[in-house]
Amino acid sequence: MDRKYISKIAFFYSLFLILLSLVPIPDLGWPIFKLFEIDKLVHFVMYFSLTILWCLASENFYKSNFKLLLFAIFFGFALEIFQHILPFGRYFDLADLLANSLGVIFGIIILYYIKKKLL
C-alpha cells in the first residue's frame, strides 16, 4: 500500500481520536480508578491502532520508533489534559492514560518484531 495513503489514514484517524476524546458526554461523576473494564480495552486498541498506522506511515521505522513512542504517549496525555480543562463534562483519568500508553508500547513492540522477521 502507498505510504502517502497510509499517512492520510493515520492523520484522519488522529483527528477522529481527538474528536472522540473531546466530544461532550453526560456527566458521569468523578472518575474511579478502574484498570480492568471494557473502556480501558477500547483505549488500548485505539492507541495500538494509532501506533500501527503511524509506524506504517513512517519512512524509516527504526529511526522514528522512539519519537513515535514519545509523541503518541504525549498525544494521549494532552487529550486527557484537555478533557480536564475543557468544559465538556469530561475528566482526566489516569487509568485511561495508562491504557493509552500500554497500547502505544505494545504497538511498537509488535511492529518491531514483525519488521525484524520480515527483514
String of helices and strands: HHHH
Low-confidence stretches: none
Report the radius of gyration as a whole number of Å.
15 Å
Q: Which band does the percent of strand residues land in?
A: under 5%
- Helicity level: over 70%
Mean pLDDT: 85
- Alpha-beta classification: mainly alpha
Distance between the termini: 18 Å
Task: Report the principal-axis shape.
Answer: globular
Largest sheet: none
Helical segment count? 4
Count of distinct strands: 0
Could you explain the architecture of this structure?
The protein is mainly α. Helices cover 76% and strands 0% of the residues. The protein has four helices and no strands. It has helices at 3-22, 38-57, 61-85, 94-118. Helix 2 (38-57) crosses helix 3 (61-85), helix 2 packs across helix 4 (94-118) and helix 3 (61-85) packs antiparallel against helix 4. The protein is globular, with a radius of gyration of 15 Å. It starts with a helix and ends with a helix. 22% of the residues are buried. The mean pLDDT is 85.
Topology, pairings included?
Blueprint: H1 3-22, H2 38-57, H3 61-85, H4 94-118
Helix pairs in contact: 1-2, 2-3, 2-4, 3-4
Key terms:
mainly alpha; 119 residues
Sum this structure up briefly.
The chain has four helices and no strands. It has 119 residues and is mainly α.
